[in-house]
Design brief:
Helix content is 17%, strand content 34%. It is α+β, with helices and mostly antiparallel strands.
């Protein structure tokens, strides 16, 4: 059974998009992943298709896909930037997205064109309110 909005783990230090992506500042980069809501709705993740290091994406552009037993869902870049790292652990263990979406299940790291754009994303409270 899916979690209620109140049961979701939505860390306050993260920023969110209405496409269920989270982003966290890490020095001059951002770490990007899917929210607890997204992984809960997906069910068991069976495959993650991510970009290559060096690929660049604009804000809102598709950068990959997550495939679960239920569906295939596109991933959308929270802010414009260049991919600097990809979580290779997801190749062999895609269920890390379910088990640890904010820690071991991160998707990519990116060098944003404008780190300040992160501030325009949703707070945990605002994200919870739209769910």
């Amino acid at each position: 059974m899916a979690k209620t909005a109140a049961e979701l783990n939505l860390p306050a230090e993260l920023k969110y998009t209405d496409e269920h992506i989270w982003a966290r500042k890490d020095g001059d980069e951002i770490v990007v992943g899917v929210s607890d809501y997204a992984q809960d709705q997906l069910g068991e993740v069976v495959f993650v298709d991510l970009p290559s290091e060096g690929d660049s994406f604009g804000a809102g552009e598709e950068f990959g896909e997550v495939e679960s037993i239920k569906s295939v869902n596109k991933l959308f870049m929270p802010i414009a930037g260049e991919v600097t790292a990809v979580n290779g652990d997801l190749d062999g263990t895609p269920t890390l997205l379910n088990a640890s979406c904010y820690d071991k299940g991160w998707l990519i790291k990116a060098k944003p064109e404008d780190l300040g754009a992160l501030d325009a994303l949703l707070s945990a409270e605002a994200y919870r309110a739209i769910l």
